[in-house]
Structures are given as C-alpha cells and as structure tokens.
C-alpha cells in the first residue's frame, strides 16, 4: 500500500474518532504531498505516474518535522508555550509515519560505510557521500548533523 495509503487510512481513522488535532495535522501532510504531486506533474512527469514515491514523501515529512521544531523553539523563546506544545503534538503525529531515527553510533557507522562504498578520500567527494547517505537513509537521519560528520571524516 505504501506511505500514501497509510496516511490516508490514518486520516479516515482520525475522522471516525473525531480527533481534531490529529486530523488537522494529517490534512496538512496530505496537502503537502498533493502540492509535490502537482509540482511533479508541471515539471513534465508522465500522465501514467501515480504521484510522488515513498522516498519523496519521507523527505516531505522530514522537512515538516524540522519546520515544526524550529517553530516550537521560536515560540518557547517568545514565551508562547501553548503554541510550542501544539507544534510538538504535530511533530508526534508526523513522526508516526517516519522510520526509526538512527542513533549516533548507527549514524557514524552509516557514514563510514558510505565513505567506503563511494571510495571518498577528500572533501571534494563529500557530495557523493551525502548522495549515498540520502539514497539509503532518507527520513532516518538528520542530514544537517551528518554533513559536519562527513566533512570532519574527510578532512
């Protein structure tokens, strides 16, 4: 069924249970996916295509989590704790659809493996290593933190 089907099922379930907060977040996820579908079609995707793939959906979800984390931080700094809590509740709903995040040790192992696979030896190879990691671990690691790890390893 895929991630799109799982999100659709969760949306229907939230409607039946009258869970307004979860329903609101699931609708935001659906809207973001549909926006990407439309953008893909306008870029010249073929009519046969059923929309974005699960990998793209994982990227969308990861971006949504990151946006909400930044918003929650900003709300806390501004003393708006109720809004920060709402953002965190949305993060929890979105993370239900993301794979388990790799811990620091697993991330370090993945970086080493990617360097080995790509044959990277200098900082010039960082793009290839990051491409390898994004291809294998989309949605499972924070690439904002991984970038400096790769850079440190290659210098």
Brief account:
This protein has 155 residues and is mainly alpha-helical. It contains 7 helices and no strands. The radius of gyration is 18 Å and the shape is globular.
Could you characterize the architecture of this molecule?
With 155 residues, the chain is mainly α. Helix content is 75%, strand content 0%. It is globular and about 55 Å long.
What would the keywords be for this entry?
Hypothetical Protein Yqey, Chain: A, domain1; mainly alpha; 7 helices; 155 residues; Arc Repressor Mutant, subunit A; 2 domains
> Helix- and strand-based class?
mainly alpha
In total, how many beta strands? 0
The CATH superfamily of the largest domain is identified as: Uncharacterised protein YqeY/AIM41, N-terminal domain
Spatial shape: globular
CATH-level-2 architecture of the largest domain: Orthogonal Bundle
Distance between the termini: 43 Å
């Amino acid at each position: 069924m895929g991630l799109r089907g799982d999100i659709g099922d969760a949306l229907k379930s939230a409607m039946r249970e009258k869970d307004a907060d979860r329903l609101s977040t699931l609708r935001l996820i659906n809207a973001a996916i549909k926006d990407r579908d439309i953008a893909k079609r306008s870029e010249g995707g073929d009519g046969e295509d059923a929309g974005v793939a699960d990998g793209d959906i994982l990227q969308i979800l990861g971006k949504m989590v990151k946006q909400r984390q930044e918003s929650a931080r900003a709300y806390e700094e501004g003393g708006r704790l109720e809004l920060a809590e709402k953002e965190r509740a949305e993060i929890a709903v979105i993370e239900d659809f993301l794979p388990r995040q790799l811990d620091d040790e697993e991330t370090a192992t993945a970086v080493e493996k990617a360097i080995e696979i790509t044959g990277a030896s200098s900082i010039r190879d960082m793009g290839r290593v990051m491409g390898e990691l994004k291809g294998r671990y989309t949605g499972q690691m924070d690439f904002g933190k991984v970038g400096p790890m790769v850079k440190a390893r290659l210098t």
